[in-house]
Fold this sequence. Notes:
Largest sheet: 5 strands, mixed
Structural class: alpha/beta
Order of helices and strands: EEEHHHEEHHHHH
Distance between the termini: 11 Å
Strand order of the largest sheet: 3-2-1-4-5
Shape: globular
Strand content: 15-25%
Amino acid sequence: MPDVIGAVDGCIVASKEHPLHYKTRKKDYAVVLQSVCDLELRFTDCFAGYPASVGDRCIFRNSELFLDAERNVNALFPNGEYIIADKAYPVLSWCIPPYIDNSHLTRAQKRFNSILSQSRQVVERSFALLKGRFRRLKHLDIKRINLIPSFILTCCVLHNIFLDGLEEYQAKQDNIDDFIGEGLQVVRQQVRENDDDNVGFQKGEAKRAHIMAFLVRND
């Protein structure tokens, strides 16, 4: 996909016990980490601390990434770049999710969704690598809620530092694959919202249609 600079998604980080609104549909207590990652699995933006009962779309729209982009989109995406997301996220000029399958998608739209899905697998691998390396994130035993976001974000910073450091060693890919394999064993729980978003919707739709046409022409 042209001009993609990252993929965004939310990741559940289980915690031991907290107020009711931190409870997931599977009766676990958890907070959400929203992250954007690049092709090298590095996190380029992280936002943590919302309860697991809050949907991804709501978390996204309250994140600094969204607020900064809405204030001055050219500061973050000066040349028309964008990030890709799953269907829980709104379609904007700088955030492109797939077309929602209503059983009436065109062949081009289905092809677009397939390419986008393959492209955004990188964020799943980033989360798997994070949890595979920092196993405490699988079940975070911290009673003070105010410390949890800082702990999660610290792990994200260290995640990037380790990736930079591993470039010095030949065994980099083997180490990453081992951690990703372990991290993928964690069952991810997601809360999704699919309602339409009117903010920048028309620009986002036009941008998505343009990308789809480009992909079809070059397929």
